[in-house]
Amino acid sequence: MGAGPRVVLVHGWNSRGAHLLGFAGALLDAGFSVTLFDLPAHGDSTGHAASVVHAGRALRAVVADIGTEVHAVISHSMGSAAALLAFAHGWRVRRSVHLAGPSSLTPMVKGLAKAHGLGPADAAAFAGWVEGFIGTRIAYVDLERLQHGLGHHSLILHDPEDRTVPFAASEALHAAWPGSRLERVAALGHRRLLHDPGVIARSVAFIAEGLQP
């Protein structure tokens, strides 16, 4: 969609590309072109299960199919982690916006084990199952492995009261990313920020700043 500098939109877990249409419309109005898609096992895409690793591979495949330079990416939740993986694999953009995204897989896996009351042995077995499913070590998707891909400017937006992805994940990402800005949003939780006019306008303005010489 559109004919200007390309922006890729990446949705989150249990979501679909259409949930980012508010951003797509604002970007088109600002003169950008937009790529919107459904991650594996989401929306109209095939599959019954997916992980952040699968999402990262799908994003890289979409970028390869675009065939032209991508100016920026806006990503939410799991989509943000997928973008971080793509950056670590060499994908380069001028700007990125990260909305309420996890920055490491290890604390997520530990948090799920704790939330389900798993003891040490069962928690270790669960971690092993996760590694079998994603096809690699959990540490592969931790910030320590991903931060070498963080060479551009980014905007990180997160509600400190988010109950799905803790705000600490964005704080850690910001601390590891010299070119990042971390801004708090209030009373929007994990998903409502996708439809908030202020968040959309702030994201588009930040991406537009990247066009300036």
User: How would you describe the oligomerization state of the chains in this entry?
Assistant: single chain
First-to-last CA distance: 25 Å
The named CATH superfamily of the largest domain: Alpha/Beta hydrolase fold, catalytic domain
- Name of the CATH first level of the largest domain: Alpha Beta
- Compute the gyration radius: what is it? 17 Å
The helical percent reads 40-55%
Second rung of CATH, namely the architecture of the largest domain: 3-Layer(aba) Sandwich
- Helical segment count: 8
Protein structure class? alpha/beta
Give the mean pLDDT: 90
Strand content: 15-25%
- From the spread of the alpha carbons, the general shape counts as globular
The secondary-structure element order is EHEHEHEHHHEHEH
Domain count: 2
Order of strands, main sheet, comes to 2-1-3-4-5-6
Low-confidence stretches: none
- How many distinct beta strands? 6
Which tags fit this structure?
six-stranded parallel β-sheet, globular, alpha/beta, 213 residues, 8 helices, 6 strands
